[in-house]
From TrEMBL:
<dbReference type="GO" id="GO:0005344">
    <property type="term" value="F:oxygen carrier activity"/>
</dbReference>
<comment type="similarity">
    <text>Belongs to the globin family.</text>
</comment>
<dbReference type="GO" id="GO:0020037">
    <property type="term" value="F:heme binding"/>
</dbReference>
<keyword id="KW-0963">Cytoplasm</keyword>
<dbReference type="GO" id="GO:0016491">
    <property type="term" value="F:oxidoreductase activity"/>
</dbReference>
<dbReference type="GO" id="GO:0046872">
    <property type="term" value="F:metal ion binding"/>
</dbReference>
<dbReference type="InterPro" id="IPR000971">
    <property type="entry name" value="Globin"/>
</dbReference>
<keyword id="KW-0408">Iron</keyword>
<keyword id="KW-0560">Oxidoreductase</keyword>
<dbReference type="GO" id="GO:0005829">
    <property type="term" value="C:cytosol"/>
</dbReference>
<dbReference type="InterPro" id="IPR012292">
    <property type="entry name" value="Globin/Proto"/>
</dbReference>
<keyword id="KW-0561">Oxygen transport</keyword>
<keyword id="KW-0479">Metal-binding</keyword>
<dbReference type="Pfam" id="PF00042">
    <property type="entry name" value="Globin"/>
</dbReference>
<feature type="domain" description="Globin">
    <location>
        <begin position="11"/>
        <end position="160"/>
    </location>
</feature>
<dbReference type="InterPro" id="IPR050532">
    <property type="entry name" value="Globin-like_OT"/>
</dbReference>
<keyword id="KW-0496">Mitochondrion</keyword>
Amino acid sequence: MESGGGGGGGGLSSADQQLIRESWQKVSASPLEQGLVLFGRLFDLDPGLLPLFQYNCKRFSTPQECLSSPEFLEHIRKVMLVIDAAVTHLEDLHCLEEYLTNLGKKHQAVGVKVESFSTVGDSLLYMLEKCHGPAFNLNVREAWTKLYSTVVKTMSGGWEVSKSVE
Ligand code: HEM
């Protein structure tokens, strides 16, 4: 029994939820491929994020090197799984709250600034648009923007908590 018309989906109407589920189907058929589009775009928009990905203390010298490393491909899989979990729980996103807050904390610990998550959001929309073409219309874009900002808002709780505790 959630209050409001959004059904507890972070302000998502049932029409929004439907649009998100439909559009995610095509993406989730090839998550790695789509994730590569997302992160390729992210490094184009902000190459400064590249040094944050280090595995066994090894830095990548180019985005291409990063995008082809097995460890980074695992990160892409993880990201796509988190989005998939959000799409699965559109009606009860609050059940992911604790997980997402912790995920925010982990990202703060590896040096990610909360602001960088808006560049991730732009890259997510870019990937969705590439995948769907003109079918990715304003309504679908707005539905995804709402979902993504709910996820980021929850993750950013991890940053704020760690700052205020210390
Ligand atoms: C600015 C963008 C991002 C950067 C620089 C970043 C960086 C990292 C790094 C360095 C790690 C640890 C190494 C690894 O597991 O590969 C990590 C872990 C992870 N990231 Fe990200 N990440 C970003 C965005 C995201 C987003 C948008 C999501 C999902 C919504 C996400 C989900 C995860 C998950 C699930 C883990 C594993 C956490 C664990 O070990 O429990 N990341 N990230």
